[in-house]
């Protein structure tokens, strides 16, 4: 990581909520993850929607910083600029590191901004869940010495172009890249019907890398997470092959992509449903068969009753359904279960990576 990264100055309004001020033992990581999700994504009880480039996105970054610093992590802030719609914009990545027995690094990342607020989304599944799980992992593992160094990265401005992860990847020099053993991307890890884990696509053309010769689609991180998941309450699945995408391989539409382009083996975890014949086929963009998310769902065809008139297509992300109160009505207990399982799985993986 470049030495130009600066510590984030916290807003005064957060100064009094340092978690280290409380000497009581925290809840189990799975329960703590859900509490973090409430604090981050609930408009009634926390920050709520965090549209890219807004004050709410900045508040979320400060909130993440406050927790990590309260647990004793040295936290770094990486401000970056990007251009969107002909306008220069700014955001920041929040990064903390847990030194391990080796200086080889496992990077685990999640973006904290959200989108779809005009439709009522509060970004609970996309991607409050990923952030909440990684924060719970960071708290549970504080002070431990693991086999490898663990780097927690919380990316800004993902929703309008993966800007945070691209900026972070671009900031790494040759030595820093060489130390990256793996990257795991937690994006939309709870909410959908099935939790999947993917590796990068075996065709480098899918990723549009600046230097295709460095690209890695090694599935070893995916396969290790898949194996560990069998010991949890929510075993992962590998998506079946569909047009353009071989079994278990994913495209470049989330924060794992810049790291695959650097030659780092990646895994991408998401909760959705690849068995549905959605608006554009079996592509995972329909997250659920729940009838409330469809104008009319036909279980026999795993699709809309009328493909020409369907408007909802089983989608949660970026819609009015992506909020905790709606998810509790649609899927009682699902968010808690999937979030908890993903939190426990990551702790197990970091303690015994098997890479």
From TrEMBL:
GO process annotations (BP): proteolysis
GO molecular function, one term: metalloexopeptidase activity
Pfam families: Peptidase_M28
Record domain Peptidase M28: where: 93-329
Protein name, entry field: M20/M25/M40 family metallo-hydrolase
Organism from which the protein derives: Aeromonas caviae
